[in-house]
Specification:
Rossmann fold; 7-stranded mixed β-sheet; Helicase, Ruva Protein, domain 3; two-stranded antiparallel ribbon; alpha/beta
């Protein structure tokens, strides 16, 4: 017997005409002219102009009427409007004063949207949403991806989920498995479970970036993937990946203080072959190594 879906997962029939592959570029250009604005390359501003991709973002966010959302990088408010139509409250964090001014005017009649002018890397989410649970939806400058994900997951009040448009190559790094692991993958997978929703071509944006993008969803784990103190864990992992072409015992010895042969001894003690490289280690192995280095007073 097919199990009955809960209210949270009951989906209305998809309207094939609601989100179609049409261009939003004319509307985007008109808004830029109206507010005498231009895309700022230094802020990584590439505006979404494909309504089909807009629908993909909304579907990936999986919002309920009672939900609260922090949107990062709302730009001209194309996504903001759709989010506001589906949830209780949207807090749109925009670093560009010109864009923030435009948003306040165009969304003046949308009472469940609050414009927060500031740098998302410096905003504590809990100061924005209070204690209520929330999700993040973001179309962010690619150069702040790593810093922003870490900032959100290490916040005093982290989000339940993150749906973010990022560079395709970076998204592929985030979902990497042992053998191809990297510092970003370990950092994200320590806190959450990432899933690649889909690939997005450069022509979905104005101006078009030089690379393709991907829509990524990360669901926060109830507790981190491994039971270790956060600071020594990332100190250990950062040391291991600092020289990824070197064998792990050499990389650790370059970045952390060890007595003679100490790195080899520590790795061997937890069953890790010292000649392996950082990208081959699993989260559990990083956790075991961290606990060993804590016990030895290294981290």
């Amino acid at each position: 017997m097919t199990p009955r879906l809960t209210k949270r997962h009951e989906k209305p029939p998809r309207d094939p005409d609601r989100f179609v592959r049409v261009g939003l570029a004319p509307k985007t250009r008109a808004l830029l002219r109206r507010f005498e604005l231009a895309p700022r390359k230094q802020l990584g501003q590439n505006f979404l102009v494909d309504e089909f991709v807009l629908g993909q973002i909304i579907e990936a966010a999986d919002l309920d009427r009672d939900d609260t959302v922090i949107e990062i990088g709302p730009g001209l408010g194309v996504l903001t409007t759709e989010l506001a139509a589906r949830c209780a409250a949207v807090y749109a964090i925009e670093v560009d004063p010109g864009m923030a001014r435009a948003l306040r005017e165009t969304l003046a009649e949308t009472p469940n949207v609050t414009i927060v002018e500031g740098d998302a890397l410096e905003v504590e989410p809990g100061d924005v949403v209070g204690v209520r649970p929330y999700s993040v939806v973001a179309n962010i400058p690619y150069h702040i991806t790593s810093a922003l994900l870490r900032h959100l997951f290490e916040a005093r009040h982290p989000p339940a989920s993150i749906v973010v448009m990022i560079q395709l190559e970076v998204a592929q790094r985030v979902i990497a498995q042992p053998g191809d692991m990297n510092l970003l993958a370990v950092s994200v997978q320590f806190y959450g479970v990432p899933r690649l929703v889909g690939r997005v071509g450069a022509n979905a944006f104005y101006p078009a970036p030089t690379v393709d993008s991907a829509l990524l969803r990360v669901d926060r784990r109830p507790t981190p993937a491994v039971d270790v103190p956060t600071e020594p864990f990332f100190k250990t992992v950062s040391a291991g990946f600092a020289m990824r072409r070197k064998q792990i015992h050499n990389a650790l010895s370059e970045r952390l203080w060890f007595p003679t042969n100490g790195a080899v001894d520590a790795l061997t003690a937890v069953g890790i072959e010292p000649s392996r490289r950082a990208q081959t280690l699993s989260l559990d192995e990083w956790g075991a190594l961290t606990r060993e280095l804590i016990a030895r007073g290294i981290v």
